[in-house]
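INFO  loader      accepted 1 record
INFO  loader      residues=100
INFO  predictor   begin
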Amino acid sequence: MRLSRFVAFAFSLIAVVTFGCARPIPKPRMVEKDVIRAAKAELMARFPDSVAAYEPYHAEFRDGVWSVSGTAPAETRGGGAPEAAVRDADGKVTEVHLSR
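INFO  predictor   done
INFO  writer      dumping C-alpha cells
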C-alpha cells in the first residue's frame, strides 16, 4: 500500500514537472506569402540574376524565424539556391545567402 502511494506520487510529480516545463510553441505572426515577398526583395537586391531561376520559394517557421528557400531546378547539382531568414516579430530579413 505504501509503495503504491509512493509510485503514484512519483508519477504525479514527474507529470507535473514534464508538462510544466514544456515550452509553448510560438504561433507565427506573418503568413508564408508575406514572408516570401520580403525575402525575395532582399534576395533580388543581392542576387538579381539568380532569384527567378529558383521559383517557387517556400518558407518554414521555427522558433520565431522563417527560413525561405528556392526550389532548385532538376538539372542543378551542388546547391546554389538563394535562401533567406526572416524574423517573424518584425519581418526583418536577417540573413541572405546561397545554399551549398
